[in-house]
Amino acid sequence: MKENRKIRLGISVGDLNGIGCEVALKTFEDSRMLDFCTPVFFASNKTISYQLKALHMNIVFNGVQQANKAIDGKVNIVNVWKETPNIQFGEATEEAGSFAIKSLKAAVDTLKEGAIDVLVTAPINKNNIQSEEFNFPGHTDYLAQELEGESLMFMVTDSLKVGLLTDHVAVKDVSSAIIPRLIRDKVNTIEKSLIMDFGIQKPKIALLGINPHSGDNGVIGKEDDEVLRPVIQEMANNGHLVYGPYSADSFFGSDGYKKFDAILAAYHDQGLIPFKTLSFGQGVNFTAGLSAVRTSPDHGTAYEIAGKGKADHSSFKEAVFTGLRIFKNRTEYKELTSNVLKKQRIKR
Q1: CA 137 – CA 154 distance, rounded (Å)
Q2: How does pLDDT run across 51-90, given as a tens digit for each residue?
Q3: Is the pLDDT reported for residue 343 higher than 60?
């Protein structure tokens, strides 16, 4: 990133019939946000104008053809399409899914080119995005293909961070998907992210059990004893501060999570139900382990309130600030480790 400009924050607008545009625009309706970054929406001037009028909002924006033409101090719109979408607030339509993917692909391509520094994605509908051109269960899987690294779905706040061993996997397939290599990879990814993205030098990580009561010594399943425990012990012996498996039903209620820098849950609902219960509206979905920074709010399209101006933008705003902090931490980490490597080469 050039030092003479602010961090460019790209925004994919998500499902146009949902609350994505609303929460993103509300975030930057406060002009003070422009002191922290330069927002770049991937949509079209007409689309954003329609949303602003429907939501009774007044934002002066700058239309550009490419993100590298974005102007600091302004809300910028990259014109990704010339068509006029038929916006039907609250409806899950194939057309809305198509435009959501157009916005996402344009934003990701621009992120890969380096013309934006951080990506914040507004919510999509996992059903209406499906097509021959896009066959992924959600953002995370698509980003894992497009950006280098080992992706990890990481739900974060200042005080609570929950990663997933398996994310968009059917419950019936969870136990067979959790194998030693997967556990090692996810622990390494979450540990590296805590160090590089959050500045935690010696992170402590807790793993939740796969079965109720972590299997009760094999009475309720053997996966915890035969798969999880051996890998946890192996990694602990190699210097990783990894502990568990802990019984998931009591782990959060007893405040056990406060003793750790991050928790690695076995599957989606095991991790996200307690996370959203404890932090809904303030939580951020961060895709850790990739070559670029991507965050999103912790909620979905919320069709039931779309177009009514009632959406709370707190989580989207937090996703912006979290993305900016991670980008700065990662940049600083790279500079520090690069300097260490240079000194080592000189000594040799």
Answers
A1: 17
A2: 999 999 999 999 999 999 999 999 999 999 999 999 999 9
A3: no
SS (H, E, C) the chain: CCCCCCCEEEEECCCCCCCHHHHHHHHHHCHHHHHCCEEEEEECHHHHHHHHHHCCCCCCEEEECCHHHCCCCCEEEEECCCCCCCCCCCCCCHHHHHHHHHHHHHHHHHHHHCCCCEEEECCCCCCCCCCCCCCCCCHHHHHHHHCCEEEEEEEECCCCEEEECCCCCCHHHHHHHCCHHHHHHHHHHHHHHHHHCCCCCCCCEEEECCCHHHHCCCCCCCHHHHHHHHHHHHHHHCCCCEEEEECHHHHCCCCHHHHCCEEEECCHHHHHHHHHHHHCCCCEEEEEEECCEEEEECCCCCHHHCCCCCCCCHHHHHHHHHHHHHHHHHHHHHHHHHHHHHHHHHHC
pLDDT above 90: residue 291: yes
End-to-end CA distance of the chain: 31
pLDDT of residue 346: 45
* Cβ-proximal residues to 70 (8 Å cutoff; 6+ apart), any chain: 8, 38, 40, 62, 64, 76, 78
Tell me if the pTM is above 0.85.
yes
